[in-house]
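Inputs:
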Amino acid sequence: MDAWANGAYGGDQMSALERELREVLQREQPSAGFDRRVLERAALARRSQQRQWKWISTAVAACLVIGLTSVYWQRERQAERAQEQLVQALQITAQKLALVERMATKNLTGQEK
Amino acid sequence: MKHLILAIVMAGAAGAQDINLLQFDTLKSKASDSVEVNLSEPMLRMAIGFLADNDPKQVEVKKLVGGLKGIYVRSFKFDKDGQYSAAEIEALRAQLKGAGWQSMVDVHSKKTGGDNAGVYMRTDGKQMTGLVVLALEPRELTVVNFAGSIDPAQIQALSGTLGIPNFSVGYEKAAEKKSKE
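Outputs:
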């Protein structure tokens, strides 16, 4: 005689458990429109990720533009300052060369008294 | 260590400079007006970078600056006489008696408040490699140092523009006249 079949080893309990498991694990048909909802949610997630990347790339591009503009602006300011200094140096030099020339001419012609 | 770093920085700053102008730094506090120009070679390149190629005067400036390694100016105006010492000037003139330097013009007066000026140039045998203009008046002291290849006539070519007064460089004629006398 088979002891399992007679419930000698708790066969009734096992069947109940088995029944419950079967019920719980029973394949259920998804509700109507489930696939559409899944696809929509996936598309939404993808769009949000794309938007995030767009923001990041815009921020990086803006930082680059600001950085490059500030470097260019700084270089231009430096160049302007250098140009001002150059013109000032040339003006002073020309004035002083003219002064030295006057002094030398005065000394050579013996006009200094 | 700090002193060493400072010395290296100062040596770097004075690198292209033909002469040492540090002795004039103390005059800044006494002066009522002062101008200090320190244009190293990269700064000069930067300064001419924005000049137009179609303007003859700006092209002249480019040509003039093209051969230069630096321009250094110290100019002081004082409210009263006697603010700078003869020792400071002699220290500068001593530097200009060094190798390679020669005086083009030297106006020397022993009178108080008399004319004192000089134009000095340095050559490498072929071309002018440095120019110093020194002008002393009772209440004004100016030293200009052009390091590199320069011709005063190039500065003259710019007269009447950029606020540069009209003048002529007549040193050679004056020297000729003096030798005839």
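Remarks. The longest strand of chain B covers residues 68-77. The radius of gyration of chain B is 18 Å.
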